[in-house]
């Protein structure tokens, strides 16, 4: 990576972003690039790291407000935001695990219409009763088997 500061266009190109996104992040206080003598934004290594942190944090589901707190070393609520985010990640990971189990079950299920599958009916029944936590346990184990044809 170059050690010389780069332009907004170069930074945007490096991360596949539109320049207006970087300007918006500057407007909301996530970025504070240096300016050259002509007033053009110049981004150094620290700003590149911040952009990478912003992108990774967004991919993890954080809002720009949360990311702003994360990047603010003086924010007293930083740990509260991070604790809440970890709880949200745990919840979403559990949802992904349920989705994976459903998909694996569908692959091994003989029913052409999963709505007629007893395992899926039990799963739907659990959801209708308002207890989605039992959904995975309600499905017969798939063991990662491939679909049974016929």
Question: What attributes characterize this protein structure?
Answer:
150 residues; 2 domains; two-stranded antiparallel ribbon; 7 helices; 57% helix; 3% strand; disordered C terminus
Structure, explained:
By secondary structure, this protein is mostly helical. Helices cover 57% and strands 3% of the residues. It has helices spanning 8-15, 19-27, 45-59, 64-71, 78-108, 118-128, 135-138, and strands spanning 34-35, 41-42. It has a two-stranded antiparallel sheet. A hairpin with a 5-residue loop joins strand 1 and strand 2. The longest helix is centred in the middle third of the chain and has 31 residues, at 78-108. The termini are far apart.
Describe the structure concisely for a colleague.
By secondary structure, the chain is an all-alpha fold. It has seven helices and two strands, in the order ααββααααα.
| Spatial sequence of strands, sheet with the most strands | 1-2
Care to count the β-strands?
A: 2
- Which class do the helix and strand fractions yield? mainly alpha
Number of domains: 2
The CATH level-2 architecture of the largest domain is identified as: Orthogonal Bundle
CATH topology-level name of the largest domain: Multidrug-efflux Transporter Regulator, Chain: A, Domain 2
Compute the CA-based radius of gyration.
23 Å
Mean pLDDT: 83
User: What percent of residues adopt helix (DSSP H or I)?
Assistant: 55-70%
Q: What's the number of helices?
A: 7
As residue ranges, the low-confidence spans are 134-150
CATH class of the largest domain: Mainly Alpha
Profile the largest sheet: 2 strands, antiparallel
